[in-house]
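Sharing in case it's useful to others searching the archive later.

Someone asked me privately for the predicted structure of Abasic site processing protein, so I'm posting the question and my answer publicly. Question first, with the sequence:
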Amino acid sequence: MCGRFTITDPLDAIMDRYMASIAEGFEYRPNYNAAPMQYIPTIIAGKDGKNKLGSLRWGLVPSWAKDDKIGNKMINARMETLAEKPAFKRLISSKRCIIPTNGFYEWKKEDSGKRPMRILMKDERLFSLAGLYDTWTDPEGNKLSTCTIITTEPNSLMEDIHNRMPVILNPDDEAEWIGRNNEDVQSLLSLLKPYRASEMRAYEVPKEVGNVRNNNEDLIKGVR
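And my answer, the predicted structure tokens:
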């Protein structure tokens, strides 16, 4: 699964990386411990086809849900069952998003306990997690837009840490993933695969990252 990540690059760098404009009402601050049920930066293609940087609450609430409590259970979507699960299959063709990040956390199980690890690109560049989003309306007519992060089997780096990893999009595939004109489900599913381990690295971080109330740059400092 993927339950924590970081997004700490300057706003201008994120906008430049995705050639995106800011959606109305979007506010950004670096997040060293992004967690489920928080509003996280996301990229979607606007009706004009141009990328928009906005925020979605992490934890998918399908439009047909009775209430929003289901979001706690839907922070991730398994790539292998996207085309089967009712909550996800109708979103693949029309409601796809990118979650920009510069690293994610996973806990490595050992006999002595769990060690929190941060996984990132070797050159520390921004990269894109594949996601789906939806909008739910409560009985009073208030709208809530939420997202989920898609996961896949681990690559050779991740398999020593966890049995799942988030889908990291190849940069060349990002436009196809969020493009509004692509409704070919099989073509889209083919983009969702383990990223190249040769471009990634992992290191241990402080155990304080386990508490979502902790959110500062000390969390990404390596533990020796």
